[in-house]
Amino acid sequence: MDRRVIDMVMRYPNDMELGGEIRKMVWDWEAEQAGMGYNKDVKIYESPDGGKTVFERPFGGDISERKLVTSDENKVE
User: Fold this and answer.
1) Judgement on whether residues 8 and 35 belong to the same structural domain of the protein
2) 13 plus 30 within the same structural domain
3) Pair 48, 70: CB distance under 8 Å
4) How many domains does the chain have?
């Protein structure tokens, strides 16, 4: 386990505070990766309805950036 996480668990006994600090650590890491050009072309695929509708968005991108990839309405049977 990453020593930073262990230190954070000891420093923040309140789960809400701990969650906020870990979230900040992840966001900082994502920003650093994006700034270095990593994950530039990586896409995230999400389906809110178990695969009937699929959306694509950039890695680390906001949900508002997602685009419809496929849906049941587009399927030919």
Assistant:
1) yes
2) yes
3) no
4) 2
- Residue 9 is predicted with a pLDDT of 92
Task: Give me the residues paired with residue 58 across strands.
Answer: 43
Q: Which tens digit of pLDDT belongs to each residue from 9-53?
A: 999 999 999 999 999 988 888 888 777 666 667 889 999 998 889
What are the tokens at 53? 């509708």
* Residue keyed to tokens 């994006």: 34
What one-character-per-residue DSSP string does 33-64 give?
Answer: HHHTTTTTT-EEEE-TTTTSSEEEEETT--GG
Q: Which two tokens stand for residue 30?
A: 């994502």
Residue range of the domain that includes 20: 1-39
Indicate whether 45 and 21 sit together in one domain.
no
